[in-house]
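Why predict the complex rather than its parts? Because the way molecules touch one another can change local conformation, and only a joint prediction can capture that. The input here totals 641 residues.
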Amino acid sequence: MKRFPFPFPHDAYRYSANIEPALTRAETAAGAWGDTVLEVDGDYRVELAERRAILQSDPSRMALLDHMRPAAWDALVLLLETLAQQYPRDMAFERSGRSCRWVNRLLDEERDFVLGDDSSLPGGPLAYASSQVQEDIVLLDQREDALWLDAGVVTFAADWSMGFDVGMRFLEVHGPVPRIHEEQIISRAQHFIMRLQPGRNYRRTNWTMTVGRRLDTSTETYPEWGPDRVSIVDDPELPERLHLRVEVQHLIRLPRSGAVMFLVRTYLASLAEVATIPAWRDRLGKVLAELPQDMADYKGISRYREAASDWLLGV
Amino acid sequence: MSTPLLTAPQVGVHLDLVVADSSYQAAGIRELVLRHPGRAILPSFAPGSHIVIECEGHTNAYSLTGSGDFPEEYRISVLYCPDGRGGSAAVHRLMHGEQVRVSAPRSAFPPVANARRHLLIAGGIGITPMVSHLRAAAEWGRDAELLYSYRPGQGAHLADVQALCGSSPGLSLSEFTNRRSFRAGLAEALRRQPLGTHLYVCGPQAFMDTVIAEARAACWPESRLHLEAFGSAELDAGRPFSVRLGRSGRSVAVPSGVSLLDALDRVGVTMPRLCRQGVCGECVVPVKAGRPEHRDLFLSDAEKSANSAIMCCVSRSLDPELELDL
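Output of the joint prediction:
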């Protein structure tokens, strides 16, 4: 819980363009988070194995429109260089001209590849990048005064579908979210992202709730996890089964392709775990009790949020 | 110093480099090679990017002509403009080994990743941003055609673009050394491009005006036309106007020939700035009342018509007075 990115600064939650510079350490009641963009934690191997299995059974979780190949290479190199600098004991990246060597001792991998040559890496640059970081990766193209979701590997989506959204404009992707259009939050966010400069990286958090310790709650697997949202209400094990799901999202301008890389890292904490931090227990209870109905409906938590807040607040 | 990784926030936007080499690309066009004093790799950049160089109190923006992939050096080519503000003369005076402060690369003229084709049109020194476009097109196998108009014997980067266009089957080059043949070549090229081609033009203002007018006449949609302002003539001096600073109630006169940015400087209201050409977006000022005369390339059309912001380095006012949120 020490590095859990508890996302609520207030007892009430509303949508906002809650963007702040990346790498800013954020203190919480339990510790701190946010001093890195990428984070390799104790679940590294487990989560990467899960991603590999998901991609094998459903390749549509990865999409790469042809014009995004340069962006995919741009993303790969930046991610590997960053990992190597951050974890020098376990990882190393060397480049000579276009020839690269990547060593990842955590995965027992050593790989030589050639920049721009898709066949030199298993699955190509984007799939390979997603096999080395726990973060989901989305690549946005910028053209015609808009951002377009034109590539990504998203195996841990919070009730959305990479395969469905690929090729859409940023504003279209966010079409179903209530309130943010009337409040011009999403157009302001797009405006902001379109002016991002390389090296000036930003982040935000988002949250929802998930039944079970389940990272894959994409639209494709709804039949597997949807029914849990009903059965959880009367389950005596609700505090252990219901999880606060927090996404740490980073916005990064890729230097050579000009695309924007959007990284999504998902963290889960059960209500029982949240409750070990009294300030969090109280705060989450109040947020869930106060959340307007339309926002609760969109997040898919309407059925059980009262049961959750009651438990947290000891009602 | 190198491309910022995701492990540390970028501190500042400046790089202190040294002049490692220089040569004349053509009469009056000096190419400078800038390197990090410790030979570190410099930040990578997108095709069409520029740096802003500070020299003897002048700041000028120049396109980067080298490779944007893990560059060991930045290359710029600077046309000496005797009638300009003096920035180009200062750059021409730089000596080998001299230190210069430049901005990190900024991308304001990038290719369109899903374009079927790029039609690049350069007049004179306007060739500079096209060189990096051609490099990237060659690297990624994209189709591009360059029309290059230059005075006989004055073609900067001619060998570079000839070599690049010869290196990839998707690239082609047409050279023009007189106005009439260029106009004929332009008219023909505009009419034979496949749908989905994007046009990029850079050169003197009159040259760009001609190309854009011809493209519109050939029914090119606005969204496929891209202009690079560097290398263009100075904007006209503009009519005088005044601004009221909403927070203090103060009124500031902006005479003809003086930018709003400079007028604000004179009364001690200092806005951030970099390019001073309406490209970088640093000097944006919120507008509370009045209609700006937008002359920048930074704000989108929608933002311009909302009249809620002005780029104070180049834009002026349609109304006698603007009220600013300052």
